[in-house]
Specification:
The protein is of the alpha+beta class and 228 residues long. Helix content is 21%, strand content 37%. Strand 1 (50-54) and strand 2 form a beta hairpin.
Length: 228
């Protein structure tokens, strides 16, 4: 890869990563990490606030009690938890002739007001309804030195908390794999189909979003003191 091409790719990746975190400019710190009790002996393990349940042969449900939401997603997606949400790495079939390099979806929950990154290459903008909630959405597409970048984002404001959903894909030029002629055409067609399929699955995940309401605890201000 030429130095100028590598530099351009790095710059675009920096812009994308910076855009993801831009909306949290007014946010406070994310939830503290959960201690799983593995760092010291004699400590009591803490129950994880997240869980995954298989709901069908190819779908699973992710639930995060601490952040207060659940979503359904394809079981084949690889899950990576973080303090502020969850990231799903979407696998790419190596048997298909394609140059798709990255497919990823994530959900972040942060305090503050939702705001999309300040970009100029907006492909489309709109809203979708999920249950009783209305989510704002934008999609962005850009090509730099033969590399195709596509991002779709949804945001949901709930009180003083922002729920941000982000799908991103990076597709390399066919020359990266020395594909020419019919193979290059096949790869270009497969690239489009792979990204569109992952984008549709991501949107379906967003539409499955639901708030998790935990059982209310006892109101200690009303509890009678124990008799001695």
């Amino acid at each position: 890869m030429k130095k100028s091409t590598l530099t351009a790719v790095v710059i675009v990746l920096i812009i994308i990563v910076g855009g993801i975190v831009w909306y949290s400019h007014s946010s406070s710190s994310a939830s503290p990490a959960v201690d799983n009790g593995s760092s010291g002996q004699g400590t009591t393990p803490v129950i994880s606030p997240t869980e995954t349940t298989k709901v069908s042969s190819d779908m699973s449900e992710y639930k995060n009690d601490e952040l207060g939401f659940s979503v359904k997603y394809p079981t084949a997606w690889e899950r990576e938890d973080s303090n502020a949400g969850v990231t799903f790495v979407i696998p790419i079939d190596p048997k298909q002739v394609s140059t798709v390099a990255t497919l990823q979806a994530n959900i972040q929950v942060l305090a503050g007001t939702c705001a999309f990154p300040p970009v100029t290459s907006i492909k489309d903008r709109g809203t979708i309804t999920v249950g009783s909630n209305t989510l704002n959405t934008i999609s962005m597409a850009n090509t730099v030195k033969g590399y195709d970048y596509f991002d779709r984002m949804y945001s949901l404001q709930k009180g003083k908390v922002c729920y941000m959903f982000h799908f991103t894909s990076v597709t390399q030029p066919t020359s990266i794999k020395n594909l020419t002629g019919s193979q290059a055409t096949q790869a270009a067609n497969n690239n489009k189909a792979i990204v569109n399929s992952a984008d549709a699955q991501f949107t379906a995940m967003v539409k499955s979003f639901a708030f998790v309401v935990l059982p209310a605890g006892e109101d200690e201000t009303q509890a009678a003191p124990a008799k001695k």
